[in-house]
Structures are given as structure tokens and as C-alpha cells.
Amino acid sequence: MNDRLLIGTATAAYQVEGAGGGRAPSIWDTFAARPGAILDGSDGSVACDSYHRLDEDLDLLAGLGVDAYRFSLSWPRVQPTGRGSADPAGLDYYSRLVDGLLDRGIAPMPTLYHWDLPQPLQDAGGWPVRDTALRFADYAQAAHSALGDRVTRWATLNEPWCAAFLGHGSGVHAPGIRDATAAFRAAHHLLLAHALGARAMPGADTGVVCNLYPVLPESPEFAAAARTVDEIQNGLWLDALFAGRYPEAVPRDDAHAADLPLIRGSAAWLGVNYYTPLRVGPALPDGRSVPDQRAYPGAGDFGLHPRGPLTTMAWEVDATGLEQVLLRVAAIAPDVPLYVTENGAAYPDARRLPDGSVDDQDRIAYLRSHLAAAERARAAGAPVRGYLVWSLLDNFEWAYGYTQTFGIVEVDPATRDRRPKASYRWLAAEIAARR
Ligand code: IFM
């Protein structure tokens, strides 16, 4: 095992870049334009404007002293229609980002797909259609041939559960479809895309990033619902990737089953995004749980019951859950390196220090306890290699717009000026101490 945990931060293209440089439309541009889809009516057209503020962001990373930076490539920036030749200007942005990181001694960790499907591919059917997986493999090859001389560690997809089940089950994410059959098809084609993409990048160290949760029934009557939630949230991805099968909650499909041998063993490493456990209990009277139910087809009527203290996402804070999910994966796939590719918390950020910067002691406590949990999993034998904080910047939090702040750097919503929070300084000191 490597002696020192690699420490970094993470962002994603649609959440930070903005549409600068003539980025072509993705499903998130279309979805965000739907009235009521985004809580504050916002979108990612400017976001943190990282497209124009590349050097500033690079310097913030250098100031932290991180080992790695996880970012995503915008597929429509690289391949505007999702097919055909790549746009050299789009690739050039990522090439400059990669060079800027390497110049500062930071390892680039790109993700190829963090939910921004080129709109023309959605018009052709999107993830429920098999051809989208083939298009993804071509895109992966184009990205790898442009950057593979400088980037070794790639993630194909971020959180395919969200793309499949929030995008096609509950419909709270783009493309906003509510159809369980489409959600299961999307899930399979995302896994196929990952496997074909990994094969299209010879010599790369290619993994995939899943959002995993301990799933806990509130009482024995909810054991069956919790099992289904667990199978869709965790088992679907882990079983397919590491055992070449789907759990019971996934409807049988012979064409999908035939792809499983290709999917099995296709991840050279696994990224684990962890935020909170899920407690499955009775449906809540105020109807808040309804979207969650649709995101878990077959689980029946249930609600999620987070226990305080909660973040502003209403997510329960429980660092032991991170240790549990890491140990669970290590038990299934003991030789597959693990990276905590996202961990972090949205808080009100209401307190300020005399110098005006946010004094986010709650976020520091969250990060400190979760980093310790990752270390405990490692000490217990899980091959945990890295820990990356979500997020470097306050950014576009999908259906929540800009109402949720996860950053260790504050971004002024009007000017996009950056100001490090206390958590940024804490992380910098933590990294320095570990060296
Ligand atoms: O902001 C998201 C990110 O895009 C994917 N993982 C969870 C984060 C917080 O919700």
C-alpha cells in the first residue's frame, strides 16, 4: 500500500465552467430552461466562469498544496454534437488545464462524463438507447488521444445512479424523464459506456465513480424496501462491475445480460462519492419523499429519515458511513484501489471572520471526521488511495441551483470573485502536516 493518502479537491464542468468558449448545449442547458426545474431558476451558463478564470483556479489549487485535482470534461465542449471529430478549441481548454496542473505538481484526474450529455444525443434517444454507449467510447478515445500523453488516471462516469435514476426515474435531473423502464435501460447503457470507454483508452488507468450509501431500514417492516433501495443505489453498480451480474431489483433483460462479461472487471479502480447514509422508513406526510421513491423503482412506498445534525441539503452527517462503504467494496473487490472521489457538505456559511472570509467550522468538522473515517478504513485493510473534497468552489448544485454551497472557496454570485473559507486554510494546513 502507498504510505500517504493522496489529497485533492473536485469539481465538474457544468457546475463550474460556464458556457464560455462557445460550449455547445447539453441536456442540462435544456433542463435548466424548463420552468420550475431548478430551485432558484438559475443555470450553468456562467457558473463560476472557470472557463475564463483558469489561472485563478489553478493558483487556488497550488495554494492548497493538493496532490490531485478531479475535474470533468464537458462532452459538448469536446464534441459539440456528441459524434464526429473533436473540436480543437474545446480540447485546448483541457490541455491548458492539464498543463497548468502539471506545472504546479498536481495530478490531473479527469472524469469524462459528469451528466452533461450533448443535446443532439438526447434528441437521438439519450442513455436509454444503446448507441449512446458507442458514442461515448468514441468520445473517450478522442479525449484520451488528446490528453493521454499527460493524464494517466481517468474516470469514465460520475455517479451513474444519478444519471439513470434521477434523470429518468424521479426526473429531478436532466433529461427530466419519469419512466422506470427508461431508467433501467439508461443504467445498463451507462455501465456499457464505461466498459467500452475504458477499452477505448489503452494504457490508461481507468475507473468509474459511484455514489454509495449505507442503507438502513428504520424498522423491520421496511427491510424489504431498504433491500431494494440498496440494490439500486449500491448493488446494481457493484455487482455488475465486480461480479458480472445484476441484483434482483433489476428487471431481467437478455440483451443486457449478454454485456455483463464485458462490464465485469472493467474498472481498474473505483471512485466512491460519500455524503450520508440513507434511512428507509414510512413515507413522509408532506410528500417530500415522493421523488426519492421514483428514483428507486420497485421499492414501494417509503420515505427517507435523516437524523440530525443535518447539512443544508437535509443530509445526515455520519462519518462512520464512509468507513462502512469503503469496507463493503474492499470485501467484494479486495484488489481494486479505492479513491474517495467526493466528500463534503453544504452549510449556511453565515459566520464570518474579521477579515470577511467565511468561518465554516461545521464544514471543517465534517471534513476532518470523514478524512479520519477514510484513514480508519485504510488501517482496516481497504485499499484506499485518495480523498478528494467536494468541492473546491461554491458552484451550480444541479436542481438546487446556487442555493447550496459546498465549496471551500466562496464564489461571489455577482462578480464570481473567489475568497477562500476557513476550510480552505484548514485543508492546506492538513496537507502540509501530512507531508
Ligand atoms: O454536486 C454534486 C456532484 O456533482 C455529484 N456528487 C454530489 C455533489 C453534491 O450534491
Describe the structure.
The chain is of the alpha/beta class and 435 residues long. The protein has a single domain (6-434), classed as Alpha-Beta Barrel (TIM Barrel), CATH 3.20.20. Helices cover 40% and strands 14% of the residues. The protein is built from 15 helices and 13 strands. The strands form three sheets. It has an eight-stranded parallel β-barrel, surrounded by seven helices. A three-stranded mixed beta sheet has the order 6-8-9. It has a two-stranded antiparallel ribbon with strand order 12-13. Helix 14 links the parallel strand 10 (338-342) and strand 11 (384-390). Helix 8 packs antiparallel against helix 9 (180-199) and helix 9 packs parallel to helix 11 (254-263). It is globular. 57% of the residues are buried. 5-hydroxymethyl-3,4-dihydroxypiperidine binds next to loops. 5-hydroxymethyl-3,4-dihydroxypiperidine (IFM) binds at residues 12, 15, 159, 273, 342, 390, 397, 406.
What are the salient characteristics of this protein?
three-stranded mixed β-sheet; alpha/beta; TIM Barrel; 15 helices; 40% helix; binds 5-hydroxymethyl-3,4-dihydroxypiperidine; 13 strands; globular; eight-stranded parallel beta barrel; single chain; 435 residues
